[in-house]
Amino acid sequence: MSSKGKSQTYRISKVIEAPLPFVYNWCTDYREDDGKLTGSRRKTKVLEKTKSRSIYTSSRMENGKLIGRVSVVSLMPPDAWHLDTAGDPLEQYTGDYKLTKLGSKKTRLDMIFETKYGPDAKVPTKEWWEDDSNKDWDKLILALMKDYSKEN
Prior knowledge:
Blueprint (H helix, E strand, L loop, with lengths): L6 E10 L3 H8 L15 E7 L3 E10 L2 E12 L3 E7 L4 E13 L2 E12 L8 H26 L1
Antiparallel strand pairs: 1-7, 2-3, 3-4, 4-5, 5-6, 6-7
């Protein structure tokens, strides 16, 4: 990625009505159909899934071109994980995820993303990015809560 691009930091925090171990396991169980939970059109392929990391590819069509990236998730049980992405010429990012126990059945998820945009990328406003990501995480949390209620 060219150094001429722009960098941006984004922060999101969510409170989830489920115990920390369940939230950690659910959030770090990467599957190829995860995109359906948010309505994403990206196609995902899980390449590796171990106790210490997950690696997956994702791709999408943009302006008639196939754009793909590789994501490596380093797992730090019981309450954190780190995401690195590479390959997308428009944006690359890292994400740090940290869970905090707020009670026996309440957990806070704090996320920090550092995004580097390529020189040809349309850089969204910070407000738009955070709003769009919050909407996706709200959908993910609904799915998490549905799975949690099935088990309890």
